[in-house]
Prior knowledge:
There is one protein chain. This protein is α+β, with helices and mostly antiparallel strands. The chain has 4 domains: about 5-225, 4-Layer Sandwich (Glutamine Phosphoribosylpyrophosphate, subunit 1, domain 1); about 240-380 and about 485-560, Rossmann fold; about 385-475, no CATH class; about 570-625, no CATH class. Helices cover about 40% and strands about 15% of the residues. It is built from 24 helices and 17 strands. The strands form 3 sheets. A 7-stranded antiparallel sheet has the order 2-3-1-8-7-10-9, with helices on one face. Helix 5 packs antiparallel against helix 17 (about 515-520), helix 11 crosses helix 12 and helix 13 (about 430-440) runs antiparallel to helix 14 (about 450-470). The protein is globular, with a radius of gyration of 24 Å. It starts with a strand and ends with a helix.
Amino acid sequence: MTAIAGFVNLGARSEASRRETDELLAAMLAHLVGSEPRGLRVVTGPHGGFARGTARCGREPDAPRVANAVPTSDGVVVVADARIDDDEACDAAWRAGVDPRAESPDERAIRSAYERHGDDCAQHLRGDYAFALFDPRAQKLLLSRALLGTRTLYYLEETRGLRFASEAQALFADGAREPEPNLEAIAQFLVNDYSDNGPTLWRDVVSVHPGTTVVLTLQGLRTMRHAALEPVEPLLGLGDEAYAERVAEALGRAIRRRILRSKGVGVTLSGGLDSSSVACVAEQERRRLGLTHEPVVALHSRYGNLACDETPSSLAVVRRWGLRSVEHDTLADPSWSAPSRALQAGAPPYYPSAFAFDALFDAAGACQLDTVLTGEGGDLCLARTPFDFVEPLKSGNARSVVRQAFQPLFSMEGLRRGYDLTLRQAIPWRLRASVRRFKRAGHDAILTDRWHEALEQRRLERELAWESAPRGDLRTATLLRWVHGAGQQFCTARLGYFARRRGLTLEHPFLDEPLVRLLLSLPSEQRNAPLRRKPKPVLRRAMRDLLPAKVYRRQNSAEYSSFVRTCLDDLHRDALSAVMRPERLIDLGVLRPEVRLESPDASPLPLFYRKLAAIAMELWLRQLRP
């Protein structure tokens, strides 16, 4: 991932000296991509400075460094972590070769959009991006992210200006200000309600929300929305094969756009349907495009005899397409998932599976890859939302709804799922909220009364905003809420942290906006069939000729909590013993004093993840303030 960083001061604000700006940019980039990045571009001027760079990967030879590159003739400066799609001039420039020290083709496309459309430029961009644009004539800074938000951008406003960077911790890299925890965000994290959009774990640090542009002028900050998925017109009346053909074409285009510029492609291959589909299509598109680099590299983690091990399925994909294979045995080499790595400066909150991914990214750099694809987002985009059941109910087919929503009917899982998908939507949110006030949820019981009440109030405010917001397509709005919600955004940001330090571009084809729009337009029974877990019928049909039979015929899905439990209860039990009493969280008044985290492996799954979140946050606080 490309890293961007900068500092801006406008008008009457006190201007930092040129030397201070250079030192700040150097410190921020060093935190993001190391002290000797490649593709370094730095532009400084009377109103601040802007920098862009990429970490060196593998055995890459030294590249020339440059500072104070000349900005464009009109003074507009753009630094971007971006992939602008459907721009022939941009793609042609990348194929012809790019001077990494100059304005990139993607940055040039963003500047051209700004020259034509002004502050609304992001509305006219297609692709995935996080960029900063400064116009000295208008005394204006734009910070913008694409709708699905797989590239991150944070900012910190202070008395002498505004800082921005691809990672929040980089904003404090020069040591001029000590980072402080945001207690409300920490409480949200502990109950799986933290999304890394808006206010962050760091006090006063804000993440640019996906699909919005933050505009800084002499009058102050304002935020405007530039993108939305809705409404999506239903695509009805086609046969199963026609739907599958459209999905195959859309996934192929999504992957083609992501590998066209690469010099080496890898795929994090778990062996599940989503990642296997990405691996098969990526190799098919590589051959079709005639790309000269070697076959796609399958990056796979072994989990021994745990329930999450999918090695036979991964190997079947490798054999079917003749892929190169790189494996990491997570149990034989547990150092990558060790909690001590969460204590390194700038590391994200501890999660064993995500930390183990870094071993694959390290191997990808050693293989001279520059792009890694994942299957992230497939579960969300091919899931059913509660509103998929509205039309059958309107048509009087209640029996079908009950059969699909409550199966297996006589089980707690069936009752919970049925409630979430149907009955919950029929209960007015005010009534749901008033009931919650009298019953403290089990996973919230770890919080002190102050933060429990504060989070309940926030939830009520979000429910009110959700209920009152204008939207034409409830199904689309629900899915976008899931994509931007707790879990997904923080997961992609955490993986991006590791990929950025390996000089890799991390791409998630299932989070491609045109593909998401297509999937949302399909009838719900095409995306997800009842009575089975993650069946994804339309994707299975679309990939039938590409997937090996072992993957195509699989009906089950791996349960990765088994690896997390093993890390906490076995592999790293001794190392974690010091945080089993979360003293930092208790001292800050977030956790109740009687909370203990011993033996989280024996807890029911929801409470297990709350305890894991508490362990992660305790480690993160000790990293923040050693």
